[in-house]
Amino acid sequence: MDLRQRRNILFICRFLQDVNIWKRFDLFLYLWYLYPNMLQLSSRSVLRKCHKHTKEDRISGLPDEILVEVLSLLPFKEAVATGILSRRWRYLWTLITSYLNFDIGIPYGGEEAYYDKNTEKFVAWVNNVLKVHQGTTEVDQFRVRFSMNASYSGELDSWINFAAEKRVRRLELNLSTTFGFGHFDPYSFPSVDKLKHCPPYFTVLASLCLINVDVTEEVLDYVLANCPSLEQLCLEGSSTLANLKICGGASLKLKHLVLYRCEPLENLVISAPNLVSFTYTGPKKVVPFKNAPLLSELCLGDQYCHFFIFKASQQLDYLSKIQKLTLILPEKVIIKGGFIPTDLPKFFNLKQLELRISLDLGHPLICFTTLLKAAPSLSEFVLKLNFSGALSQKLASLMNDKERVELHRRKTKHSHRCLKFIEVVGFIGHQTDYQFALHLLKIAKVSLEKITIDTRQPRSLFGPNVAFVDVNPEETHNREAARKCARKLQPKLPRGAELVII
Fold this sequence. Notes:
The protein is of the alpha/beta class. Helix content is 34%, strand content 20%. It contains 17 helices and 19 strands. Strands 1-2-3-4-5-7-9-11-12-13-14-15-16-19 form a 14-stranded parallel sheet. The protein has a three-stranded parallel sheet with strand order 6-8-10. The protein starts with a helix and ends with a strand. The model is unreliable at 4-36 and 391-401 (pLDDT under 50).
């Protein structure tokens, strides 16, 4: 965006400050519709057009198709709220077909009390919206994000039936709290008998995401057999899934599979010729891939992560094809393993590596450079840290073995010729992460273009997405101290490299 565009945006915003909020929204959208190149005009021209249309409600006269397209750009709750503006707008939002997103965005920290008081209100809101929805074409996304248990099975079943009638392409039921936990009596996805009575429109379903929803192997077999367009399957927190066998020929379009916190899972077999990415956290399993020739992205956590690192030689069939690897390493895995082996097989095609590590303060990070050395083609490395208390006595004695640490340092010493981008998230400015950052600069001195030091502290690393701790005075003080330490890296940068501090 050039200087004129930035100036005109600021100019328009200042002009609209004195206009009624609805008029402001009305005028800005209408001007943009009439003059799509408005940001390139002179300030005098912008002012003249603003004055010309300030007293007119022209936007309400636009065709329904354009107004619905505008509403589809708003969060769904706000789009519904426009129904109170006037008769013209009362039911426009019901024509939205691009998404139905029932996520009210509950702030982190007060979830349990909120859910207890507002579940009935949330259910009534969803039912009312679905009752008046008039869209006749396919709905791209149907999403419910609210903590609910089995006592609302009737409502949830009816919502799934509605999604089927609307030929939904992306269906997500997230019934967990913001903390990621569910209920002792979780909702169960409709049985095969119930699904057979649903409208036969799930044939266009491309993505199914079930979080803290119980589902059985029989139901998943039915879904995979009757949803030929399914490309993404995400199962998180199911307490009833003990066996999963995904087998199919070229007609199976499944590309992305996520299995997270499905604790009872004992047997897993995957034969999916189009599978590109696989995410799994849980107990150690035998290598689950029977046929996955296109697999290029892996995200692994918990005990299987330990198995992947320390038994890498047993997984050579698919390791050589992986281009993007994410390892979620909880503290118990690190303690159990001690130092990562220095004789890992080579990941010749690995281009992106992300490590999410939760560990005690003082644990040397030098051992993780083994993974970088094993990936000679690596171009991007991301490290996300979550420090806890001080080292336990047992682990401290292990890590303070200076002879062992020095031996590991010598074995992992190397110069990386492809590593261009490094990012360290959760940097606190302790000797642990500062020294490791220096070590990374030495490793990538030939090829490094940019290193980013992010001082925001992750709330938790063990989930599909990483959220950050809310900003408070103590957090602000700690981050400033961390940024001060990060600035010491500047004179250590290789020539031409850029340092970004967040």
